[in-house]
Write a structure and sequence with these properties.
The chain is of the alpha+beta class and 164 residues long. It has six helices and four strands. It has helices spanning 5-16, 22-29, 33-45, 78-85, 112-123, 146-155, and strands spanning 65-73, 91-96, 103-109, 128-135.
Length: 164
């Protein structure tokens, strides 16, 4: 779904002020509440926005170690390994990838020994050939989409849809 300049302004507000009411968003943007609600509904229906809960810090839950684990999988076992990864609570994200490996996972752990235990658990999964682990030292750019929203908003004139 293409996004126009007003949609981009709405998305920016959602990111910058996530706890604000729809009525207040409409006031800030200078649009009717019904217009704003219709756009919010459309963006959610089209998958531009998703309903999400609060962002929770694994470090605050006692898991300060962050690692990226690449997993090489035997051909034909990608779906089964992906399902098995979903059962490991310390895997907070997993993606099929191209390049070196078949899956890239984001793993959190209490400490390095716990990380090693998790990796050993992964190696035991049927279909896993090998893993390669890289430990994150420090976050340099936090997960974000606001710069992308701003770029899309700049490329779309008011009332016009930006190319997808």
């Amino acid at each position: 779904m293409p996004v126009d300049a007003l949609d981009a302004r709405i998305l920016r507000l959602l990111l910058e002020q996530p706890r604000t009411s729809v009525r207040e968003y409409a006031r800030i943007l200078g649009v009717a509440r019904g217009t704003l609600q219709a756009r919010l509904d459309r963006m959610e229906r089209d998958g531009v926005t998703t309903t999400a809960g609060p962002r929770i810090s694994p470090a605050a839950l006692g898991h300060p170690v962050l690692a990226f684990v690449r997993i090489e999988v035997t051909q034909g076992h990608l779906d089964a390994v992906g399902q098995a990864l979903a059962a490991v609570p310390e895997i907070v994200e997993a993606h099929s990838i191209t390049g070196g490996g078949d899956l890239l996972t984001r793993v959190v752990a209490r400490d390095n020994a716990h990380l090693e235990d998790i990796i050993q658990q992964l190696i035991q999964l049927p279909g896993v050939v090998r893993t390669r682990t890289e430990i994150a030292l420090r976050e340099r750019v936090a997960a974000r989409v606001l710069p992308l929203v701003e770029a899309v908003g700049r490329s779309a004139p008011d009332g016009q849809r930006a190319p997808r």
